[in-house]
Amino acid sequence: MAFAQSVSAGLLLAGLAVWRSPIVLIDLGWGAASGVAGVIGVLLLYRGLADGRMSVVAPLTGLTAAAVPVLWSPFIGEVPGPLALVGIVVALGAIVLVSREPSGDSGNYRLSTAAMVRIALASGVAFGVLFILLDETSPVSGTWPLVANKLAAIAVVTVQSLFVSRTGLAVPRTAWRLVVACALAGTAAEVLFLLSTQKGLVAVAAVLTSLYPASTVLLARFVLDERLRRDQLAGFALAAVAVGLIAASV
User: Fold this and answer.
1) Which of 13, 22, 113, 245 could be bridged to 87 by S-S, CB 3.0 to 4.6 A?
2) Distance CA 55, CA 16 (A)
């Protein structure tokens, strides 16, 4: 995670060397704060997935991450239109259906259900705060806020790895390609999200972004040959309806 963030920071700096943008200190502050929030969300999510049930942690995290900016948007004067509001509600249902895992496995989990819920809610709130903080940045600063985001995230992960979990920062040679691929995909996603918040409402951008489990499920279907369940197929249908409703309102 630390090295993927480092590669991403390098990519963003290289991009800034080509498409120069001024450094706005307040935007660097928003970016750094968003980096702290984002990495806390990821660490909590990984803890929940590792020690808890995915069918509880994944949908609740995604739902909360989408709901926080929606609840916040009226306070900053960004009220979605009627069609967008309906689309947001439909999208929240799609997030739950697409990201659910079968609940038939009664294996032993290190976390109680209550602890899973607490971790998922905390992770979702952290991601929601990340969305809100990035929305505070101005378009003139380009991707400088994301550079600050990465540097703050690297600092948090490094401290956590070396002094809290004491797992170290060694990366196996065979994992480097995956680290770079992760950095490329993550950088593209974050740049696109930043642009979307600068062009439109953060509530809409956050909800559409939180549909990301759909892409994971599709990749699992075609890369790992996993079967899609009926509730997941229903989630895809709801996601398509939600995107259509939100697009129609723009």
Assistant:
1) 245
2) 40
Please name which of 68, 63, 36, 59 lies closest in space to residue 132, comparing C-alpha atoms: 68
pLDDT in tens, 15-35: 888 888 999 999 999 999 999
What is the distance between the alpha carbons of residues 114 and 124, in angstroms, rounded to a whole number? 15
Domain borders along the chain are 2-249
Amino acid at 225: D
Angle in degrees, 0-180, between the axes of helices 25-51 and 113-135, rounded to the nearest 10: 160
**Residue 98 CB partners (closer than 8 Å, separation 6+):** 211, 213, 214, 217, 232, 235, 236, 239
128: its two tokens = 């929601």
Alpha helices in the chain (DSSP H): 2-18, 25-51, 54-72, 82-99, 113-135, 144-159, 176-199, 202-209, 213-223, 230-249
| C-alpha pair distances (Å), 159 with each of 106, 166, 198 | 35, 9, 32
Please tell me the distance from the alpha carbon of residue 90 to that of residue 96, in angstroms, as a whole number: 10
Task: Record the pTM.
Answer: 0.84
**The two structure tokens encoding residue 246:** 């939100």
